[in-house]
Structure formats: C-alpha cells, structure tokens
C-alpha cells in the first residue's frame, strides 16, 4: 500500500516542490506539496492534510500554523519538522542533498 507524503513550506515554490520532485519516482510513495501562505502556489487545505499519512514541514513555525489553522484536519498523521531554512533555490543541489540526508531515516533513498 502506498504511503501518502505531504511536504509543506511557506510558498510552495522552492523547498516543498523540490522534496516532492526528489521523491516522485518512488513507487511506494504518493507525494504532494503545498504552502501555508495565502500566496502559495498550491495552498495547504484540509483535504490535503486528511489525505496525508505523513507530513513534513520545513520550519517549526509551520507546525504551529498547521495546528492553529487546521487542527480539525490533523488526526493520526505524523508531522515531522525538517528544520530546513528558506535559503535555497528550487532543485538546488545543496537543497536536494539536505533533503535526502534529513528524509533518509523516514523515507529511505529517493
């Protein structure tokens, strides 16, 4: 059975879409990404949160915002903070390397 994985950052333009792209080829995972800001490319929704089995956020404040604004949609999903600052470009090799290192223990290799 596939595990539904949701990556969340602020704008859904750099970090979370990179994580989604890096893990998109895994047959055992269904991945998506979203952002918490109103101007996000793909905004976090209750439907997306309910879909997810595991949620990875890039910063601690993302967890706080999820719990404040979407508490009713957060059930048994694991929420894990990767502590990745917003200093990278989309698919920047350094970002891919950090993502792989931090996600290895949870998702294995991409």
3D structure, described in words:
It is a single chain. With 110 residues, the protein is an alpha/beta fold. The chain has a single domain (3-97), classed as 3-Layer(aba) Sandwich (Rossmann fold), CATH 3.40.50.2300. Helices cover 37% and strands 20% of the residues. A 4-stranded parallel sheet has the order 2-1-3-4. α1 crosses α4. The longest helix has 15 residues, at 93-107.
Report the mean per-residue pLDDT as an integer.
97
How many strand segments? 4
CATH class: Alpha Beta
Biggest sheet statistics: 4 strands, parallel
Q: And the CATH topology?
A: Rossmann fold
Query: What is the ordering of alpha helices and beta strands?
Result: EHEHEHEH
Strand order of the largest sheet: 2-1-3-4
Number of domains: 1
Instruction: Sum up the overall morphology in one term.
Output: globular
Full CATH superfamily name: Response regulator
Identify the notable features of this structure and list them briefly.
110 residues; alpha/beta; Rossmann fold; 4-stranded parallel sheet; 4 helices; 4 strands; globular
Summarize the structure.
This protein has 110 residues and is of the alpha/beta class. It has helices at residues 15-23, 46-51, 60-70, 93-107; strands at 3-9, 29-35, 54-57, 78-81.
């Amino acid at each position: 059975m596939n595990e539904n994985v949701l990556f969340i950052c602020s704008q859904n333009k750099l970090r979370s879409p990179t994580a989604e792209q890096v893990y998109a080829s895994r047959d055992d995972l269904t991945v998506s990404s979203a952002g918490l800001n109103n101007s996000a490319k793909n905004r976090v929704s209750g439907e997306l949160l309910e879909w997810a089995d595991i949620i990875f956020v890039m910063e601690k404040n993302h967890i706080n915002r999820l719990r404040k604004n979407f508490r009713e949609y957060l059930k048994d999903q694991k929420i894990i903070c990767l502590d990745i600052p917003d200093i990278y470009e989309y698919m920047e090799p350094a970002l891919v390397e950090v993502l792989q290192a931090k996600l290895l223990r949870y998702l294995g290799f991409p």
